Amino acid sequence: MRYLPLTEADRQQMLGLIGAKTIDDLFVDVPKGALLKDLVPLPKAQGEIEVHRHMQALAEKNTPAGRTAFFLGAGAYRHHVPATVDHIIQRSEFLTAYTPYQPEIAQGTLQALYEFQSQVALLLDMEVANASMYDGSTACAEAAMMAARVTKRKKIVFSGGVHPHYVETARTACEALGLEIIALPAAIDDEAAVTKRLGADVAAVIVQSPNVFGAITDLAKIGEAVRGAGALMVATFTECVAFGAIEPPGAMGADIVCGEGQSIGNALNFGGPYVGLFAVKEKYIRQMPGRVAGETLDADGKRGFVLTLSTREQHIRREKATSNICTNSGLCQLAWTVHMTLLGEAGLRRLAQLNHERAVALAEALAKVPGVEVLTKRYFNEIAVRVPGNAQHIVDALAVKGVIGGVAMSRLNPNAGMDDVLLACATEMNTDDDIAAYAHALKEALT
Amino acid sequence: MRTETTSGNRGLLQAEPLIFETGHATGTGVDLPEPKNTPNKLGGLARKAPLDLPGLSEPETMRHFVRLSQKNYAIDLGLFPLGSCTMKHNPRLNERVARFEGFADIHPLQPISTIQGALELMDELAHWLIELTGMPAVALSPKAGAHGEFCGMLAIKAALAARGDAEKRKRVLVPASAHGTNPATAVAAGFIVDEVPGTGDGRVDLEAFKAKLGPDVAAAMLTNPNTCGLFERDVKAIADLIHASGGYFYCDGANYNAIVGRVRPGDLGVDAMHINLHKTFSTPHGGGGPGAGPTVLSAALAPFAPVPHIVKGYSLREHKDGTRAFGRMCAFHGQMGMFTRALTYMLSHGSDGLRQVAEDAVLNANYLLARLKPHFNAPFGDGPCMHEALFDDSSIKPKGVETIDMAKALLDEGYHPFTTYFPLVVHGAMLIEPTETEPKRELDRFADVMIALAERVNAGDVQFFKQAPILAPMRRLDDTRAARQPKLRWRRGDNGADAAKHAAE
Known about the structure:
The structure holds 2 protein chains of 2 kinds. Chain A is of the alpha/beta class. Chain A folds into 2 domains: 65-80 and 349-446, Aspartate Aminotransferase, domain 1, CATH 3.90.1150; 83-339, 3-Layer(aba) Sandwich (Aspartate Aminotransferase, domain 2), CATH 3.40.640. Helix content of chain A is 38%, strand content 14%. Chain A is built from 14 helices and 15 strands. Chain A has a 7-stranded mixed β-sheet with strand order 2-8-7-6-5-3-4, sandwiched between helices. Chain A has a 4-stranded antiparallel β-sheet with strand order 11-12-15-14. A two-stranded parallel ribbon of chain A has the order 1-13. In chain A, helix 11 packs across helix 14. Chain B has 2 domains: 94-345, Aspartate Aminotransferase, domain 2 (3-Layer(aba) Sandwich), CATH 3.40.640; 350-480, Aspartate Aminotransferase, domain 1, CATH 3.90.1150.10. Helices cover 34% and strands 9% of the residues of chain B. Chain B has helices at 19-22, 58-69, 92-98, 101-104, 116-133, 145-162, 181-188, 206-212, 235-244, 336-372, 403-412, 440-458, 462-466, 479-484, 497-504; strands spanning 137-139, 171-175, 192-196, 217-223, 248-252, 272-274, 295-297, 309-311, 315-317, 389-392, 419-420, 429-432. In chain B, the strands form 3 sheets. Chain B has a 7-stranded mixed β-sheet, with helices on both faces. In chain B, strands 10-12-11 form a 3-stranded antiparallel β-sheet. The longest helix of chain B has 37 residues, at 336-372. Chains A and B meet through helix 1, helix 2, helix 3, helix 4 and helix 5 of A and helix 2, helix 3, helix 4, helix 5 and helix 6 of B.
């Protein structure tokens, strides 16, 4: 087997030094009967040629986004990732390193983490960011739980614009802790509705912007009421490219900002691995979940970086930890940092503008299709569209024509009462031809 | 010896400032199309203030990150004997496969007809995990080991609730030697942790365990092989006892790599166990993630598995309505990029290769145990270990050298150290896990270095250890300073001179 360097002669020699006759002597503590004598009934070892062939055959049963006119977002986005990014994250020194617990020989990972935290803080206009979470949805669940710890209150209000999968992920985690989730009905704009649910027992209001319908929310309007009620304002997002164009949550008074970073540096990957972004006001850092890198000095007085504030974390605090999270999203975080370094402010702003202009073009094209109504008025690169009929059926019909036209809202939330609503997205990857093909296919599907 | 240079570089090792100290807001390493400057639909919420994010050209970016990379240790560079972390070789075929367009460029919400290969792959991975572990079901979506623990404990909670026991059974028995994630997870799932002491031979004290059982116990969380690198001989008795008292048995599968293909957790009475695909099945650690933690479930817990579920044929059940699923772990289907790598690894090894993985991992660890036992105290070294060998600093500490000093001396010798001070039940622990991908000559070389260091301690050269490392990219870093005066990001106005200024304080 090509990954196993020991030879049979090595094994015998080593057993001899250990003082064991057979390998089974080393498994002597396994209860009798539980040590398998036979192989597990699965195929035997194969070479690279056979394995490659098998996996290639599976891959070919999927339709890659790039082979279609592709307009699907709703939590995962198809953007261009520069070739440099994948090269760097495949370098052995990043790919095959462990968590930087020995900082003297892990400054590469640690400095990249520090740069990541700084970039995230600047992007979101927040004071401090952590070293990343599993993804946007789990980051959002952590934010809800953190708000409950900070305020010592038990109710979390979710705006009806939050991605339904985020709400369900947070519900699962929060209810286990005895917290109560108040999920408002699905709505493109519920700025007024969320503040009505405030009360002395509400720990946080969680608002997504741009939300699952693509709508941009004026968090500043809600923030005052939230603060007045002693709750925390939690802002979440699924499309971080937006902050190259729209007002960032930190500038509108958010206390905790959490969301998905996949758009920068990371491919679609059928939903994972992704990279959760998490940022807070500085006064809350000791309640923040997850790893964080900080600056310090070495014995010679040189600047270096270490993982710090670990007294919040499970490996030190055990049952008193702020979260059970152990890993961050290392390589995905590195990909994010490399891509963001390539972009810089100038590149990010242009990327965001291109996305927005593509979405405006898409909205205009779809609005011209008879019977179709664009519901989202203030948006970045996603829109909700009302179609005459069942949106799921229309999405399926479009797929047959080589157009991935978005996702039916009913697939994300069957109880939303929005069976005729379709969520569509445009990015810098969509050409004018793609948009024309979509409008044409939709027209056909509706007649 | 001259150690300072004019440039700050040291031979191949290049000094490298932060991107914020070299880049500027107008720099960029991407050439995107010209925007058309059409009227926007941002409704007055356009970003007002500058971002102040620096951009670097492509060559500058490449150089920056390559320079950083050269300050990292990595498994591809040398032995990485971190106990409990399973730093084994990461096959590059897995990386290639994960990047196939048909896997990397598919969206989690695409129409079902366009993702049949993805669902088939997940079903095939599930089949392998089920056959290997002897458990009837697996939840694939947990995103890391601790997330898998959370999934297992929530399934247990749901099963208790289904029989009306959730309010009554709140206590979870966790051995003192457990990973920190176990007690943290139990609390996150709304349970109360009750610690079970160990015995003198590094295992759970069965009598103490029995004494803690009762009608308020929800579950036991046990790592097997445990964090001392030992197989829990009484694991079946523990499973029977917890079941007889009405609770469930959670097994932390972090060390499953020691028994894959040789022992099926399903045969030991396990109800739930997460599998770290980034350990046993060699998806890369990536400097701290991403991981993946699929969780196998017994027949008693399987009905409560979180959504989404794969339905044969293939389709997806994405909502819990009408099922007994306890909820949802994350937005989509879990770590697909890790599923492709892990399945590639499994197919490459096959049933015979995976069995050899466990055997060679255990053999390598026992070999190091045998070679180092005469020179370091092995607290449970009388019998064989599993995939990792545990030592402590009791034989060197009286001479003034502790575990941390031994670890830092290894940095100068060109090694990543062993795991230090874990498990907590052994003072000054040094936990060594070589894995099966180390050839014998690398083990011998490492053992020779460790023995030479032990001899150096015996010779009384304490200063050698206390000043280490002197050859690593950095000297010892001040953790206390980092925690007391947290500086977690760059701010405009910071500059490289700050560090020197602080040093002069």
